[in-house]
Amino acid sequence: MKFHTRKLIKPGDLNANNSLFGGTLLKWIDEEAGIYAMTKLGSKKVVTKFISEIDFVESAKQGDVIEIGLAFSSIGRTSITFSCVVRNIFSKKAIIAIDKIVFVNVDDDEKPSPHGKNLDNLALVTTNS
């Protein structure tokens, strides 16, 4: 798992329970995964196609620092798939786990378009941090 982004949990990120609002976390994950898909495919025209079951394991509180980790899973003709773990940077405890996030490369008409990448020409990131 390669951890890409760190976020400080601020008051505006909290829900009524004073923990990190799930929608805010999902927005951050989608943004980071989209950027990762763009860099791997060399295309700015990618869209979120699918996010599998989301498992909220722990909560995050104001002042916590979290990090979003993404790992390459597979590549298709028009798609790329990652898994995701978000963890507390200090405790290293997982906050959320997502097995599958799929992005699709699209053309100017927003239709799936081959990206031309495969395992041989895709620079995979496989290091742990």
Can you describe what's shown?
By secondary structure, the chain is α+β, with helices and mostly antiparallel strands. It has a single domain, classed as Roll (Thiol Ester Dehydrase, Chain A), CATH 3.10.129.10. The chain has one helix at residues 22-41; strands at residues 2-8, 46-51, 54-56, 65-75, 79-88, 94-105. Strands 1, 2, 3, 4, 5 and 6 form a six-stranded antiparallel beta sheet that branches. A hairpin with a 3-residue loop joins strand 4 and strand 5. The model is unreliable at 124-129 (pLDDT under 50).
Relative strand content: 35-45%
The major β-sheet equals: 6 strands, antiparallel
CATH topology: Thiol Ester Dehydrase, Chain A
As a whole number of angstroms, the C-alpha radius of gyration is 15 Å
Number of structurally distinct domains: 1
CATH architecture field: Roll
Low-confidence stretches: 124-129
